[in-house]
């Protein structure tokens, strides 16, 4: 009886540990792509189905310095003339964003070209 209780407790502990590792070890936006953007427009206010937010079409830079024009949707209005690091999911919605003071040096070089 004691061995069965010990075994069950050990398995429960292992299961909890695995849940913690998978929950916090893998970020929720693992499928999202990271970009740096310099917001130079106010964005277009949109209302679609259950989404209310802003649509942006901007030149976005990847960490390696390559750029592409992307369209993305943000639930929050991004401040004009500010720089952001954004994570855009496959459905073009911003998973998260963070304002940055300046672009990384490799990206800044290409942005000024």
From TrEMBL:
Domain of life: Bacteria
Membrane spanning residue stretches: none
Pfam families in the cross-refs: DUF1093
NCBIfam families to which the protein is assigned, alphabetical: yxeA_fam
Protein name: YxeA family protein
Species the sequence originates in: Listeria newyorkensis
């Amino acid at each position: 009886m004691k061995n069965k209780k010990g075994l069950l407790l050990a398995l429960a502990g292992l299961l909890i540990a695995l849940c913690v590792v998978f929950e916090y070890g893998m970020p929720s936006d693992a499928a999202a792509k990271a970009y740096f953007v310099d917001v130079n427009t106010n964005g277009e206010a949109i209302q679609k189905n259950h989404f209310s937010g802003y649509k942006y079409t901007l030149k976005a830079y990847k960490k390696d310095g390559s750029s592409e024009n992307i369209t993305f949707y943000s639930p929050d209005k991004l401040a004009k003339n500010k720089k952001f690091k954004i994570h855009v999911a496959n459905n073009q919605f911003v998973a998260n964003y963070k304002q940055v003071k300046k672009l990384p040096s490799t990206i800044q070089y290409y942005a000024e070209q």
